[in-house]
Amino acid sequence: MPDILSLSKLKILIISHNRIQYLDGVFKFNHRLEYLDLSHNNLEKISCHPTLNLKHLDLSFNAFDALPICQEFGNMSQLEFLGLSATQLQKSSVQSITRLHISKVLLVLGDTYGEREDAESLQDLKTQSLHVVFPTGKEFHFNLDVSVSTTVSLELSNIKCVLDDNGCSYFENVLSKLQKNSRLSNLTLNNIEITWNSFITILQLVWRTNIEYFSISNVKLQGYLDSRDFDYSDTSLKALSIHKVVHDVFSLPQGHVYKILSNMNIQHLTVSAAHMVHMVCPSQISPFLYLNFSSNLLTDTVFKNCTNLANLKTLILQKNQLKELINIVHMTQEMKSLQQLDVSQNSLAYDESEGNCPWARNLLSLNMSSNILTDSVFSCLPPQIKVLDLHNNRIRSIPKDVTGLETLQELNLASNSLAHLPGCGILSSLSILIIDYNSISSPSADFFQSCQKIRSLKAGNNPFQCSCELREFIQSVGQVSSDVVEGWPESYKCEYPESYKGTPLKDFHVSELSCNKALLIVTIVVPGLVLAVAVNALCIYLELPWYLRMVCKGAQTRGRARNVPLEERQRTLQFHAFISYPWHDSAWVKNELFPNLEKEDIRICLHERNFVAGKSIVENIINCIEKSYKSIFVLSPNFVQSEWCHYELYFAHHNLFHEGSDNLILILLEPIPQYSIPSSYHKLRALMAQRTYLEWPKEKSKHGLFWANLRASINIKLMGKAAEVRYTEI
Predict the structure, then answer these.
(1) pTM of the model as a whole
(2) Which of 275, 328, 382, 541 could pair covalently with 363 via S-S, beta carbons 3.0-4.6 A apart?
């Protein structure tokens, strides 16, 4: 392998699970090599060269006949792990490494092992941990002594003894020799296929050794169990773990097994993935401190009314068939020392109508994740709870009236349906909150202010609504320590609106103006009010309300007038002229204008005698203008001071009912200075500038000509019969 040989600085080389049959030069040229994994190949031999730096060497699961141990291996003083494989063992084969103190040795025995067996071949090894893998699928007929004096931890794999009429006599003999090693404290049996009776026999054998921790995994049991007594005396065992058990009998009475397990005088017991449907209460006060029955088929009746687990501190019932939370509560009531309970991955539900929840008073840690619990669970919690895991349930909110959570320090509500980030008003001691994968769109900006003791918040992967409310939360995140908000900023992204989807919250920016309502009001509303006041003042100054009223009144009268044909209106003319004048000029009108016109049989319309009672003033003005051939306006400085004169001029000027006629006659009684005419009288300004008006002469000699001109301008023969005139004082 020239490519490898050229890597002179190589320290780690892993080429396992290949088809390598021969390897040469790796040890010779790669002097810095520290980690070499050649396992699961087809190696039959290797070349040996001194390598002083090697710490990990794995030659297991290969095709070696004898142990591949070179004399040069004796110089590997830094070697910590050594993996070997062989089909035959000789004590002389390990002599070159007997001076080494190796942390762990893995020995894989080939399929033909046992034909020339040296039972004492491993006795000179010096290792703290020894793992021996016997041939797969082969009946255990071996005498190998694995009681290596320096070994603290021993693992034996592939134990099969189902054909021997004497049970597992060979394997039992191997276990009995473990008594010689007083240092051995950990024993693991993996991948075992034996009978029920042999299984209990093995437990009893180990019970009388110095082993403190015994683990059995991947067990296949056959046959039935004979009733027998189990001797619990004289044991050093502290913990027994049995994991992943299957048996070939469909219906097996397990009561005797439960009795043996429940009465063990040890501190830790684990029976997981064993299809266990029940567990009985110990017959006397049990020393159990730790029980783990996860991944079984236990129901709510487990340990019902059990008073002999008073010393139990940790109970794990994860992944069973538990359904009613209230039954679990009553189960723990008698467990006076219980501090940790795990009932996750069940089908637990709680109904508030079921009453109070008398939990074990010392319960500090409770895992109820992956159930079907709702908001009501917060009314059924232990009084001194410190760690609570409720992730993956059906919780929508934390009820505001919940009590008894003053001691809670860690809360996991991930993968629920919460819409709001809870504050710490009722969680005064909360320091860790996990609330990711919920439905939180706008977390409160006051969270960190209300949760002064929080030192870890995990709230990512929520459908955040990127808005002003979220902007304030983002700002508050920036004010806390970077390690407080876990997953920031990778797990915090906008979900809504669509235009911001996928945007990290740290990159979401919105202006202060669009989020600050007070500032928005000051910026928009105040200028709007100022503009409105200015427009209103301008309208008042330009007398816009007056014009609006005139338009309204005129429109009403015009609507009625449109229903009368033009010829008919002309036949209804009753007056030669309508006179508009201010009250202050009434003396001239009555003493001069009336007598000089009416003596020539000219009919004059005056407001004080011709306005109809009951009609509006504007309507009377329009009616008079409509029934008069001409409209005469007596102009003087007093005219521009009269609002009614202004109305009359407005309607006469627009010629509402005599379109196309020239019906306006202006008489200038007294000169009117231009500056004295208000801006609202712009029509008067225009008329005086564009039209010829009659000026009242001061010299009496010119009065005759004045009257002659005036009479000539209004002299017309009226077609209609004059209506009866009603005099109305206004």
Answers:
(1) 0.70
(2) 382
